[in-house]
Every structure is written in structure tokens, then in C-alpha cells.
Amino acid sequence: MSPPSPAQAPVAYEFFAGGGLAGLGLSGFRIGFANDLDAMKAAAFRANHPETPFRLGDVWDITLGDLPGRPDLMWASSPCQDLSLAGARGGLKAERSGAFWGFWRLVEGLQAEDRGPSAVVLENVCGLLTSGGGADFSAVCEAMTRAGYRVGALEMDAALWLPQSRPRLFVVGLKCADHLASEGPAQPFHSPRLIRAHARLPQSVRDAWAWWRLAPPSQRNGDLASVLAPEAEWLGEAETERLLALLSPLHRQRLEAIRASGERRIGAGFRRVRREGDQRVQRLELRFDGLAGCLRTPSGGSSRQYVIKAAEGRVRIRRLTGREAARLMGLPDDYRLPDRDNAALKLTGDAVAVPVVRALSDQLLLPAVAVQTRALKPRATASRA
Ligand SMILES: C[S@@+](CC[C@H](N)C(=O)[O-])C[C@H]1O[C@@H](n2cnc3c(N)ncnc32)[C@H](O)[C@@H]1O
Question: Which residues, in sequence order, are CB contacts of 113 under 8 Å at separation 6+?
């Protein structure tokens, strides 16, 4: 069967779109509307997707009249700062994460006008499973259940596809998709902490719950060394020594062992503030398992990632570049990044990994909306804004 032409393709709306990485993974969908309030990301989105109607502004300012036609899928990568295990926890009621509800009122509003989507996705950090003692996860699942979706979640680590450790939670609500659910949880995407969170959900949600079926990729696409730019410059000696002075005794020992072996090894390093006794200490932490650590937005030096090279008894360090970060998110090299490296790192550190979205799209979302579309025929195609 030949793929649908863009005009016939199912339509997705991309909320909290950033640089549009979710949309890139939603192959097979046409993005009929996208929104984000960050001007730098909006510029990158428009540069890469000039044909997509993009609205710059707060999700709470969008009205139903701004949304064209009937979407098949509504995707939300809502802000996670308040839910992140790495940050202070305010939960979904906190102002930033609360933006999810600005999105959700639009889903409900479209449903009331008989143009609601047959699929909804919330992408977030795994801290959503436990923030507010589980109340936030429960609230999201209850909202989807009340709106008539079968709801299920998957914890997906981008490291299965790409050389970056990046576990993320995807809460997926689908209509007409019983055939896409398994009898019970299955590894690797129904993690022990997801199973525990499911057990804490109210009975009404568990009745509508689905363990969505998804196959992992057969292998990862390369290791950290495979995304590195050979021309990037190493830091000078003084800066290198200053960073190496931040190693904990254990990490120093590991690096010394590698250095002493004379082996050529590429690793990743990131600065973290750790509590040691009653002190908070800035540390450089290293990994040599072929993966980068989870990319974050560079707000303050602590989240910046480094490349470490040990070869012939010498250790060199440099900052990860924006282009390398983009490759770690699965972006092709023709993706137009912002000129400033810090902006490129912000865009990529906030984003969702493209091949993870593609796996969800191919195995769950497209099959689900295809069933619904057949059930609804004839239907009006969403027009562009
Ligand atoms: C986790 S990032 C998602 C990035 C996106 N999925 C990507 O792949 O690039 C969350 C995004 O939500 C945007 N955002 C935060 N609050 C918002 C609001 N009230 N209205 C619209 N966008 C908002 C931020 O600018 C940020 O780009």
C-alpha cells in the first residue's frame, strides 16, 4: 500500500512544540497546528517547518477557534521542571507544569464540538509517576479516562535507540485501540515504577487502563563516539585541570585506571551538585559506557555536558556542541539549529528524542487513528490555519 499523500495523512496538533522534535517523530501524520511560548524555539520551529501553522504564545491564550478542523492526535510535551526528579517538586498544580491543563481544556473543548482527537499523548519526565504522592499521574489518567480514552503509559529510554540515557514517560490515551493492548505489563516499557504507580491509581482508571504493546528496536544506532564532531576544540590545560579537580575519589580512580591502561576511550562528563555529609559539593561525574548522560537545558554550568577522551595516557576534555546534542536527540544534520550554541543546547536539552516518538507513532498512534478514521468515514479533513 502506498503511503497517504500529505493532504490525506492523519492530522496531529503539536503542543509545547519547542523545536518540533515530536512532530519529526510523528512520521505519517501531518502537523496541522503547533504552539510554544518560547521565541527562540519558535524561530527554530519555523525555520525547519515553514509549512506548519505555528502559534507563538501561552497555551492558555489559545481558543478553540484558533484550532483548524478535527485533529486525529493531540500531543503535549508539557513543561516538566516542577515534576523532574532533578528539580524541586511543585507538581502539576505549580504554574509551569500546570500548562498541561491549558492543553487539556482544548481537548475537552474540541470533544464538546464533536471534533475531539482519537489519540492524546502527554510526554513528561518519569517523576510524574510519583510527584504529589502519585496524585499528578492519577489526575492526568483520570482526565483521559473521563474523556473516553483507554489510558496507558510507557517508560521509554532513548538509550534503546540512541547513545543518550534519557528515560521519559509517555501517557497515551486512545479510542478504538483494544487490539493494541497486551494482557499485562511487559518489559522494557512497563517498568517496575510504572507498575507500582498503576497499582496506586483509582479503580475507575485501572478499569480503563491498557498495557500498550510496543516492540523495542533490535539495536541502538551507534555509540557516543559516533555522534562526535572531529573538528571540535579541546579545552586548555588549566580549564581541564580545574574540571578534573571536581572528580570524586571514585571517579578519579576510574579515570586513572583508564589513563594508566593507555587505552583510547571516549566518555561523557557532567557537573552535578551532590550532598556529601552536611556539605553540597560540585562534582564532575564521568561515564564510559558509550552513552551520554541525559541532556538538560544549560541553565547554569551544572547541566552542561562534556566529552572526555583518554588516549595514550592523556586526558582531554571539551564541551559537547549543539550539533552533537542534536544528533543525540536523533535530529538529522540538515536540521537548522539556532546560531548560538547555548540556544541549540537549550532547544535540544528540553526536547523529546525523535526515534522514540517514531516508535510510538508507527506502532500505536497511526494504527489507532487508522481504525478511528475508518469508523468515522466520511469525515472532513482538517484544513490549515
Ligand atoms: C519539555 S519542552 C518540550 C519541547 C518539545 N517537545 C521539543 O521536542 O522540542 C516544554 C516546552 O513547553 C513550552 N511552554 C512552557 N510553558 C508553556 C505555556 N504556558 N504555553 C506554551 N508553551 C509553553 C516551553 O517553551 C518548552 O519549549
Answer: 64
Among 189-203, 275-289, 350-364, which is the least confidently predicted range?
Answer: 275-289
Say if residues 137 and 83 touch (Cβ distance below 8 Å).
no
Residue 71 near ligand 1, beta carbon < 6 Å? no
pTM of the model: 0.92
Could you tell me if the CB of 56 is within 6 A of ligand 1?
A: no
Helix (H) or strand (E) run with residue 341 in it: helix 341-349
Average pLDDT over residues 302-316: 88
Q: What is the pLDDT of residue 94?
A: 59
> To test ligand 1's pocket by mutation, which of 37, 106, 357 has the most ligand atoms within 8 angstroms of CB?
37
Judge contact between 141 and 335, C-beta under 8 A: no
Domains along the chain with CATH numbers = 11-221+351-376 (3.40.50.150), 233-320 (no CATH)
Measured distance CA(276)–CA(272) in Å, rounded: 12
CA of 79 to the centre of ligand 1 (A): 6
Task: Specify whether the CB–CB gap between 46 and 90 falls below 8 A.
Answer: no
Ligand 1 atom at minimal distance to the Cα of residue 22: 8
352 lines ligand 1 (CB under 6 A): yes
User: Higher model confidence: residue 198 or residue 303?
Assistant: 198
Mean pLDDT of the 376-380 span: 49
